Amino acid sequence: MRKVVAAGAVAALAGTGILLGSSAASAAPATATVAARQAPAPAAQPTGKVVANGGLWVRQDATTASKRLNLLPQGTVTALQCKKNGQNVDGNRLWYKVGAGKPGWVAARYVQNLAPVPYCK
């Protein structure tokens, strides 16, 4: 029974960094572990699903007159970086900037956002 209690106490203290050895080599891994636990997780980009029949064109700017860059098929889930007002498309002036390192804008009228999307700065 004492061995189990002692092992539990050692494990609990080891996670706090109290049981660091006198050498720098043994201190580094424990410090890195504590730092890794405290680092905030990166925020995931919001996503949206293309709901337009026939797909949705990614445009160079937030207007249907701008250059077509890419066609997203219906049902595609894509990262959305931010939103801004642009050309009115079927009663909706919002456009989403496509995220994940891809350039371009899509009309929000044809994208079902799956998470809140912030306005562009």
From TrEMBL:
It comes from the Bacteria. Residues 55-112 form the SH3b domain. Gene3D superfamilies: SH3 Domains. Keywords: Signal. Residues 1-27 form the signal peptide. The keyword Signal applies. The keyword Signal applies. This is SH3 domain-containing protein. It comes from Streptomyces noboritoensis.
